[in-house]
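pinned: reference chain
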Amino acid sequence: MDGDTLYPIGELARRTGLTVKTIRFYSDRGIVTPTDRSPAGYRRYNVDAVARLDLVRTLRELGLGLPTIRKVVDRELSLPEVAATHAEALAVQIRILRLRHAVLTAVAERGLTPEETDLMHQLARLSEDERRDLIGDFLDAVFDGLGADSAFAGVMRSMTPELPESPEPEQSRAWVEWAELTLDPDFRAGVRRMAEDLAADRARDDTTGPCRDFAAVVRDLVAPALVAGIGPASHRADPIIAAVVAHYAHICGRPDDAELRRRLLLRLESANDPRRERYFQLLAVINGWPAPESLKPVLDWSVEAMRVRTQR
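pinned: its structure tokens
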């Protein structure tokens, strides 16, 4: 192209793919100005206008406003700086849209009431600081005053969600459901009881040796019974339940009696709360961890086996 050539607005439209009306609009706002006018008063543009309009079209397609575009093409603003700012703003918008999508998906899949929908919408709109406060409030309600050693701190970390800056849709949905779950007072109370049980177990470490997760011990003792097809009410299950009871009596420092077995049944029922398992499933999605092992079959079997034996 000859740098001295001037183009009428129709030719400029053909070369840029923009409409004559759009070019006039940009010209009237000083974004691209005519180099000259014909004797009849028609606008004429040089080759620089083609490149300028190509840049304007690109920036508009990226969502920049006209005032910002004018400053960029006039070199009043650095394009990399503008791009960085705009990219950050878009990231925030994408995050908001993903969380809104999470709410609408939950409403559709779970058949939520208007009140539940409003709560989930509020949770999706929380700022990063507000999310941090919600997480801290839940963890304080569960663990406050129970222990300050490194092992207990590790338990708290293992229960802490960390939503990425750019979450995947399933992470956004999991976050909203996680937040809703942790606001349930009954769920909080149940998790607090489990934390208190853990603290009590750890307090006896000096006399009982290293403390293992209670549910994990039950899993190890009971899983072979499930594999072997032993029913919870079967006499063949007696030695397995005896081992579970013996472990519980050991960590409690109490004899095996009716009261101990009643307390054991309550602890198994608490551990078998489906909301507890859902909590860790959601946590794994949010944090990008492998899906946790389901303890439901083991705990269902254990609860039924203990109920049968406490009623005999």
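why pinned: The chain has two domains: 7-74, 96-310. The CA atoms of residues 232 and 301 lie 6 Å apart.
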